[in-house]
Design a protein that fits this description.
Blueprint: H1 9-14, H2 17-30, H3 37-50, E1 54-58, H4 61-71, E2 79-83, H5 89-96, E3 100-104, H6 115-121, E4 126-130, H7 141-151, E5 154-158, E6 166-168, E7 174-176, E8 183-187, E9 201-205, H8 208-217, E10 222-224, E11 227-228, H9 239-248, H10 252-270, E12 276-277, E13 293-297, H11 302-311, H12 341-349, E14 350-353, H13 361-374
Parallel strand pairs: 2-3, 2-4, 4-5, 5-8
Antiparallel strand pairs: 1-9, 6-7, 8-9, 10-11, 12-13, 13-14
Helix pairs in contact: 2-9, 3-9, 4-5, 4-8, 10-13
Bound molecules: pyridoxal-5'-phosphate (PLP).
Length: about 375
């Protein structure tokens, strides 16, 4: 059996090697490292893929979130509601900009922000909601949009983990995750579903005026060369990264299908185990792109299973081990532990199994067998 890896970027590279190497060579020959044609072409191709009117590339997914909040004109003191159970980047930029993060609980089945908790957290100072489409599946956007509309709030989708997934609205219409709210953001960190070979990120919006604002902010607040109309940042996707992304974008649906197929095999082998709760695909196969295959280990057996898998050389991860509201940097005396019941339980239950595009049946059988034999 091939060695099992949490993420297998080398195996994936073999499939696009000739194309990536050739386009790297082109960029090197042209020395168009910044804002070269690769960046513009990738931008247009991603707009087409997502059905987004505007894609604004930037340096990473954290910057994308920060730039989104700057672009919407959020000001110190404004409250921004986001999920307690996510990667810290989301809450980090809220705090960094002097905005007030308001963390709320998530739903235990989907791992995503709980609309009822969002509603409860709204105050006259609330300006935006940031749903995170965790592990590859959209938050409940029907309800988030309804709440946002009723309270005149902006919606920024943190789509770092769900690029390529579809969201099915209650009325039957379908949109790509990330192009539902006012702005969507993503990360091209190497291990993400669409990853480059360094750092990269992007913002998506269908709003022409907002897109213009964002394009200036990523470029030092310049709308005309050497005229700085607003305070901006320097956040660019470079041409080498764009070249990798152009090679991978046409394969994104296949990559996501490979993840989904692996996830289904995991679930088929594990769903009868009474100590496990496998991840739920909530509304049609295309709604989940399995950035992570995170399952819940019940009855207090998570940490023992983790140790056992490690002893068998099966890599696994805990996303995330500590709720954000309990992190030193993000503690707030206004929080009440009783409001974080689900996150507090999930951090003790979740375990993520190896998930990437190169998993084979032998590896999946070995992993599931090892788990079922142990618990
Ligand atoms: C990866 C990730 C980010 C940050 O992306 P970077 O490119 O690493 O800055 C933000 N939010 C979520 C949910 C992520 O998974």
């Amino acid at each position: 059996m091939r060695k099992i890896q949490m993420v297998d970027l080398k195996g994936q590279y073999q499939g696009i090697k000739d194309q990536v190497n050739a386009s790297f060579q082109d960029v090197l020959e042209n020395t168009s490292f910044i804002n070269g044609p690769e960046v513009h072409n990738f931008q247009a191709e991603l707009e087409h893929y997502l059905g987004a009117k505007h894609v604004i590339p930037c340096a990473n997914g954290t910057d994308a979130l920060q730039i989104a909040m700057m672009g919407l004109g959020l000001k110190p003191g404004d409250e921004v509601i986001t999920a307690d159970f996510t990667f810290a980047a989301t809450v980090e930029v809220i705090a960094l900009l002097g905005l007030t993060p308001v963390l709320v609980d998530v739903d235990k089945e989907s791992f995503n922000i709980d609309p009822a908790a969002v509603k409860k957290a709204i105050t006259p100072k609330t300006k935006a909601i940031v749903p995170v489409h965790l592990f590859g599946q959209s938050a409940n956007m029907d309800e988030i949009l309804a709440i946002a509309e009723a309270h005149k709030l902006f919606v920024i989708e943190d789509n770092a983990q769900a690029i390529g997934s579809n969201y099915h609205f209650k009325d039957g219409s379908i949109k790509k995750a990330g192009v539902i709210g006012d702005i969507g953001t993503t990360s091209f960190f190497p291990s993400k579903n669409l990853g480059c070979y360094g750092d990269g990120g992007a913002l998506f919006t269908n709003d022409e005026k907002l897109a213009h604002t964002l394009r200036g902010i990523v470029n030092h607040g310049m709308y005309e060369r050497y005229h700085h109309d607003v305070v901006g940042v320097n956040s660019r996707l470079d041409s080498l990264q764009a070249a990798v992304l152009r090679a991978k974008l046409p394969k994104l649906d296949d990559y996501n299908n490979a993840r989904r197929t692996a996830a289904k095999k995991y679930s088929a082998a594990l769903e009868k185990n009474e100590n496990l709760q496998v991840p739920q695909i909530l509304n049609g196969d295309d709604t989940h792109v399995f950035h992570q295959y995170s399952l819940r280990v019940l009855n207090g057996k998570r940490d023992d299973l983790l140790k056992h898998l490690q002893s068998k050389d099966i890599p696994c991860g805990i996303y995330y081990p500590i709720p954000l509201h309990s992190q030193k940097a993000y503690k707030d005396s206004r929080y009440n532990e009783a409001d974080f019941k689900n996150t507090n339980e999930l951090v003790k239950e979740v375990i993520a199994l190896p998930m990437h595009t190169e998993l084979d049946d032998e590896q999946i059988s070995f992993i599931t067998q090892t788990i079922n034999d142990f618990i």
